[in-house]
Amino acid sequence: MKILLTGATGYIAQRLLPALLENGHEVICLVRDASRLDTSKYGYKKRLSVMEADLLDSSSLNFADDIDAAYYLVHSMSSGGEFSEMEERSARNFVDAINKTATKQVIYLTGIVNEQELSMHLASRKNVETILASSAIPLTALRAGIIVGSGSASFEIIRDLIEKLPVMIAPKWLHTKCQPIAVRNVIQFLSGVLLKESTFGKHFDIYGPDILTYKEMLLQFAKERGLKRHIFTLPVMTPRLSSYWLYFVTSTSYSLAANLVESMKVDVVANRNKLAEQLCITLIPYRQAIRIAFDKIEQNMVLSSWKDAMGNLQAGKKLSKLIQVPEFGVFTDRKTATTKDPEQAAERIFAIGGYSGWYYADWLWSFRGFLDKLFGGVGLKRGRRNISSVNAGDTLDFWRVIYTDPKEKRLLLYAEMKLPGEAWLEFRIKGNTVYQTATFRPLGLAGRMYWYLVLPFHYFIFNGMISKIAK
Fold this sequence. Notes:
Blueprint: E1 2-6, H1 11-22, E2 26-31, E3 48-52, E4 69-72, H2 83-98, E5 105-111, H3 120-133, E6 139-144, E7 147-148, H4 153-164, E8 167-171, E9 177-178, E10 181-182, H5 183-192, E11 202-206, E12 212-213, H6 214-224, E13 230-234, H7 239-249, H8 254-264, H9 275-278, H10 286-298, H11 319-322, E14 331-338, H12 342-350, H13 362-374, E15 395-396, E16 399-405, E17 410-415, E18 421-430, E19 433-442, H14 444-470
Parallel strand pairs: 1-2, 1-4, 2-3, 4-5, 5-6, 6-11, 7-10, 8-13
Antiparallel strand pairs: 9-12, 14-19, 15-16, 16-17, 17-18, 18-19
Helix pairs in contact: 1-5, 2-3, 4-6, 6-10, 7-8
C-alpha cells in the first residue's frame, strides 16, 4: 500500500516510519525541510520517498492520486500563542488536498478530550479532528494521553524533575489524573488500524492499564530509578509561575511549558473500548514503559526525540539555507591544532555536548545556558539524543546540527540560543590538523557589542576546547 506520512520529522512519525516500511508499505514522507530527514538510516530506498511541502501553504500541496491511506501527525503546540490558528489552517489545507486523491482512510493521532472544559491545546486538537472528519475520506482518530517512551516530551520532563530535584514544591495540578500509554503501544495502534474498515469514521481513546495522578507518575518514576523523592503541593502556585517552574527546571521551552501546564489542569482519563483486544495489543503498564525507555537509552538506541522537532528552525529556516556559512559582514574566531590521532579527535568532535560536555570550562557553558533561559531561550538542558553520533536536524544543547559527515570529519552547528545575530560553530579535520571556526553575523549595534563583550571568553574557551579535541 502507498502511505502518506505527514509530520515525518516528528517524534511519533519517526517511530511509525520503520514499522510501516517493515510491513511492506510504500511511504511518502511529507516534510517542510527535506534536508532534516535522513532516509538512509531506514533502508528500503525503493519504497521510501520524501515530499517537501508546507501544510500552511496550500499551493505547495499536490498529493499523489493513488495514495491508499494518510497519517496526520502534525502538531504545533510548541510554536507559541498562535498554534490553534496554525493547526486549523494546516488541517483545512490538508483536507482540501487529500480530497482530490483516491485515499481510503485518514488516521489522526490526537489527545483524550473527555472533559467538559478543555485546555487551549486539547480544544485545538478536537477542532482539528472535526475538520479532518469533515473530509469525504473516512477518518480514524486515535486519542492518547501522556505518551511514555525514550525521547518523548512527557518522559524527558519527568526525568528532568526526578533526577534533578530531591524535594519538589509543586503546583496543585499534580493531583490531576491521567492514563499514560507506552509509545510502543501507540505505534501498534497506529499501524493496527491501517485500512481496517471497522475503524472508519470513528474515534477511539488509546490508553495504558494505569490511571495515575501526575504526582503518582513522578513517584513511581523515582522508585523505578531507585531514587527517594519528596513532593509537596501548593494551592497558590499560579499557571504562569508553574510554567516558569517547568521551564527553568526541565529542557522544555516556555511556550510548550505554558501549554502543558494548562493541559495538566484537566483530567485525561480514557473511555474504555475493545480496540486493543481487536488488534491483539498487550497494554504495557507505566513502570514497564519506563524500564523499556531506559533500556533504549542505555543501548544508545533512541529513535527520535521531541526536542529535535523544536527550535528556531521551525520558524521557517531550512538546514539547506544555513549550510553555507556567510563570509562577509561577519566576525570569525578561527583555531587550528595538530593531532596525532585524527580518528580519535573526530570521535570527540561527534560526541561533543550533552553528557560529554564541551571539553573545557563546562561551567562557563552552563552559565551561558542559564543566561539563555533567563532571556527565554532554549538553554543548555536539551542535551543530545545519541552519545556518539548526530544527524542533520538533531538538537545538541543550544545548537542545531546543520551538517554532519564522519567520513569528511566535519560537523557544522547553528546556534539556537538567544542572540543579537546568528552564529555557526564548525569542526573539521584535514590530515592531522583540526580546524575549529566560530562565525557570528551580528544584528545591528547590539550584535557588534555582544561580540566584543564575549571575545575574551571565546579566546579562553575555544583555545581550551580545540586543545582537548586534538589531544
